[in-house]
Prior knowledge:
The chain is an alpha+beta fold and 183 residues long. It has six helices and six strands.
Amino acid sequence: xxxxxxxxxxxxDPSKVKLGGEKKILTVLFSDIRGFTSxxxxxxxxxxxxxxxxxxxxxxxxxxxxxxxxxxxxxDEIMAFWGAPVEMEDHALKACRAAIEMxxxxxxxxxxxxxxxxxxxxxxxxxxxxxxxVGNMGSxxxxxxxxxxxxxxxxxxxxxxxxxxxxxxxxxxxxxEYVKNHV
Length: 183
């Protein structure tokens, strides 16, 4: 789940996706819907899936637009990262710009849903930049190209911290150092 330009780059050099992990400086983004349980209680399962798929499609399109790699969906949570499998110098900036556009797009979707009498969504986004291990992890029968490490966990914690501060996007001081002259 990467942009066409990333696929083209990997086709030129397939060794960029190797078995095992590699330590790199990357940027990770976590996004999660607030109050998802209460929303799911108001909709039929079919309505919930349709509503969630519209949201996930829009958010994923934005991640891909900014050359991010969609790692996974965990229920209503999105995990994405920048800087692998193809290296990019401005991965922190791309992640921040994606987060800003995600919030802008959500605002538009909420207006349409409100008009249609459908539940609106509120999200939190956490972004962190630092050393992470990226690669194919799992077993011989089922592998995922994913990230591991304390800096990944910090990104997830920052997403949850939005609840405390009633904010929507929180970046770490490490990400800030990469983007402070642009964002």
